[in-house]
Amino acid sequence: MSAWDISPGGVRDVLNRTHAAATPFEGQMTSLNSALEGSATESSSEIVGQALQGFVESIRTDLEFVFTRTGACIQAAAQATNAYVEGDLEMAANAQRSAAAAPDPSATMPGPGRGAVPR
């Protein structure tokens, strides 16, 4: 018996909410890039421009990681939940096949009228 007790509907709800929260990330990154470019231009300072460029370079890997990890986690959770559901369906089908293949016990029951089907 499995120790897992997963609610596929609950998982689906959490994944949908997580996806909804993550969807604006791309637009927010576009806004951040525009703001940084605008700040560098408006400052009219090479030093400020270089500092902003250095800042962007220092956070780029972390930001890419967040995007990649978020997408990968959503996908993996969905795949794991689907596998869980498919496993449940497979176990149910196996149980039904086993029940259908079980011998008829009336033929081996003790007592008078052995093999008779009770009414």
What would your notes on this structure say?
With 119 residues, the protein is mainly alpha-helical. The chain has three helices and no strands. Helix 1 packs antiparallel against helix 3 and helix 2 packs antiparallel against helix 3 (46-101). It starts with 7 loop residues before the first helix and ends in an 18-residue tail after the last helix. 0% of the residues are buried.
Quick recap:
The chain has about 120 residues and is mainly alpha-helical.
What's the count of strands? Answer: 0
Shape: rod-shaped
Counted up, domains total 1
The amount of helix comes to over 70%
What count of helical segments does DSSP give?
A: 3
For the termini, the CA-CA separation is: 36 Å
Portion in strands: under 5%
Structural class: mainly alpha
The topology string of helices and strands comes to HHH
Radius of gyration from the CA trace?
Answer: 30 Å
Specify the biggest β-sheet.
Answer: none
Uncertain residue ranges: none
Instruction: Name the average pLDDT.
Output: 84
Pfam families: DUF6507
Region (Disordered): 95-119
Biased composition (Low complexity): 95-107
Organism: Micromonospora lupini str. Lupac 08
List the helices and strands and how they pair.
Blueprint: H1 8-22, H2 25-43, H3 46-101
Helix pairs in contact: 1-3, 2-3
Sum up the structure in keywords.
119 residues, mainly alpha, DUF6507, PE domain-containing protein
